[in-house]
């Protein structure tokens, strides 16, 4: 045994302090983006049935929620709206006094230090649940672009720091960039949902915003989960059109895509840890099958290790608390 030569890897694992010293990947509160669902009405705080711990909030309760987010050290939120009224062209998405526009104004007035990201899409606002104008069962690409640009401008006018278009229409980044620039918002960045797969993991979110398609599905504009090279083509188009961030959605089943995007583009990459990924862990934890904290923190590190710079996650408040405890 004296002549046996082999590496002593365990030397760097023999205590918590040593493991911390040589740790390669670190998760910070600044990496987290917290999604919020804002609804019309008063004194509303209703838990989303398929997303325990996630709530619909009316504007009068939003300030309390944002105070908690700010106190935890989270620096950014992304705002989703659930309007009372919907129509075929999603009018409430770009209404100057729409629910998202009101929420953005309220947050920026009371918490100017928070980075407020506006989700820019039509599906929550259309009666048919699709992300664009529909004609004879077809989702029309080019006519939708004007409405997306109008939505982005109205959100920027309300005070949004970042526009995050999630619709997957061809040319949506170019149209929104042109609209923002033409209205004096040249400095407002675009966080593009550049790589968005047609995923089964979105189910609980669609419950939260009541946006399930009333006919068909979204496979004609969201990506096939089997495709990898397509992700690079989509991301490259958005970068050329002026995107400042690239989102990959979902996250956990697409860690290889996150790494591909990170390797190919030198702008921040954002992982969207989506509703189905959240709900699976939450359900297992509530049944006592897994350790929730350890499981969540492991998946956060996994996304960071894959190459993401920022993480949109419904677990943001919990993760921030756990990091504060550490």
From TrEMBL:
It holds the Pfam family ALAD. Pathway: Porphyrin-containing compound metabolism; protoporphyrin-IX biosynthesis; coproporphyrinogen-III from 5-aminolevulinate: step 1/4. It catalyses: 2 5-aminolevulinate = porphobilinogen + 2 H2O + H(+). It comes from the Bacteria. The keyword Lyase applies. Homooctamer. NCBIfam families: PRK09283.1 (NF006762). Belongs to the ALAD family. This is Delta-aminolevulinic acid dehydratase. It comes from Sutcliffiella rhizosphaerae. The gene is hemB.
């Amino acid at each position: 045994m004296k002549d046996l030569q082999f590496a002593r890897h365990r030397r760097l694992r023999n205590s918590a302090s040593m493991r911390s010293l040589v740790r390669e990947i670190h998760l910070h509160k600044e990496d987290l983006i917290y999604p919020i669902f804002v609804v019309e009405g008063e004194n509303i705080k209703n838990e989303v049935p398929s997303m325990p711990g996630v709530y619909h909030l009316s504007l009068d309760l939003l300030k309390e929620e944002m105070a908690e987010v700010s106190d935890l050290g989270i620096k950014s939120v992304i705002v989703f709206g659930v309007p009372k009224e919907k129509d075929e062209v999603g009018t409430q998405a770009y209404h100057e006094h729409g629910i998202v526009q009101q929420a953005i104004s309220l947050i920026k007035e009371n918490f100017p230090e928070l980075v407020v990201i506006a989700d820019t899409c039509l599906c929550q606002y259309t009666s048919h649940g699709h992300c664009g104008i529909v004609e004879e069962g077809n989702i029309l690409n080019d006519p939708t672009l004007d409405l997306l640009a109008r939505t982005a401008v109205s959100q920027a006018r309300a005070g949004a720091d970042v526009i995050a278009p999630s619709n997957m229409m061809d040319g949506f980044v170019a149209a929104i960039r042109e609209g923002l620039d033409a209205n004096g918002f040249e400095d407002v960045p675009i966080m593009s949902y550049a790589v968005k797969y047609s995923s089964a993991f979105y189910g609980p979110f669609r419950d939260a915003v009541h946006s399930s398609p009333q006919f068909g599905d979204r496979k004609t504009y969201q990506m096939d989960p089997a495709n990898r090279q397509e992700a690079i083509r989509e991301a490259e188009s958005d970068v050329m059109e002026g995107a400042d961030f690239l989102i990959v959605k979902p996250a956990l089943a697409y860690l290889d895509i996150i790494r591909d995007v990170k390797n190919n583009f030198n702008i921040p990459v954002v992982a969207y840890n989506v509703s189905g990924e959240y709900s699976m862990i939450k359900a297992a934890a509530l049944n006592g099958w897994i350790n929730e904290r350890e499981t969540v923190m492991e998946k956060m590190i996994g996304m960071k290790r894959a190459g993401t710079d920022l993480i949109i996650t419904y677990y943001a408040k919990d993760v921030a608390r756990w990091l504060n405890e550490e």
